[in-house]
Amino acid sequence: MDTGGGGASPTAAMSRWKFAAWRQYQHLLDKSTPHVGRRWLGFAAVALLYLLRVYFVEGFYVVSYGLGIYILNLLIGFLSPQVDPETAILNADDPILPIAASDEFRPFVRRLPEFKFWYSITKAFCIAFVMTFFSVFDVPVFWPILLFYWVVLFSLTMRRQISHMIKYKYLPFSSGKQRYDVKRAPPETTSLSVSED
């Protein structure tokens, strides 16, 4: 006879299953971290799938506009330094950008790291793709106005960001650690030279 403990069993089993699924998902994300090219190739496939869906359905322009605004927000975080030199209180512990050429080299630390940028933008495209299957999100709008407004917003935002980069002399892209190639001496020749006396 059941003593009342059976009521919590389905809930406990469901929470164990959710925890195991989340752990497997996190494991896959952790394994994908070093594979930058493959991750971005996967994102390109997801973005292309979304664009084809919107093109063939000929709708969901408001969803696309919202996605564009979100991508712009993520891009600003990706291109911005973690500590903004304009608003940072100069503290010896803060990793600020070098101001003069004689300052110690500090690598560029983004406000939004590359992996989180990739993860957020891929998740946003997946959510937007799912939204295209619900007609409630297909609001009728004149899409050229939305596109024009987004292009203006993108131009103004990027102009401000580029002027910030020029003012504080930083570049948010680097090719990694600088390598110094050691020049090897040419191998000695084995031919005998005849000296004339």
TrEMBL record:
Superkingdom of source: Eukaryota
Coiled coil: none
GO CC annotations on file: endoplasmic reticulum; Golgi membrane
Membrane topology, as annotated: Multi-pass membrane protein
InterPro entries (UniProt xref): Rer1
Residues passing through the membrane, by range: 40-56, 62-80, 117-135, 141-158
Pfam families: Rer1 (PF03248)
Keywords: Membrane, Transmembrane, Transmembrane helix
GO terms of biological process kind: protein retention in ER lumen; retrograde vesicle-mediated transport, Golgi to endoplasmic reticulum
Locations listed in the record: Membrane
Family that this chain belongs to: Belongs to the RER1 family.
Function of the molecule: Involved in the retrieval of endoplasmic reticulum membrane proteins from the early Golgi compartment.
Name of the protein described by the UniProt record: Protein RER1
Source organism per UniProt: Glycine soja
Phylogenetic classification of the source organism: Eukaryota, Viridiplantae, Streptophyta, Embryophyta, Tracheophyta
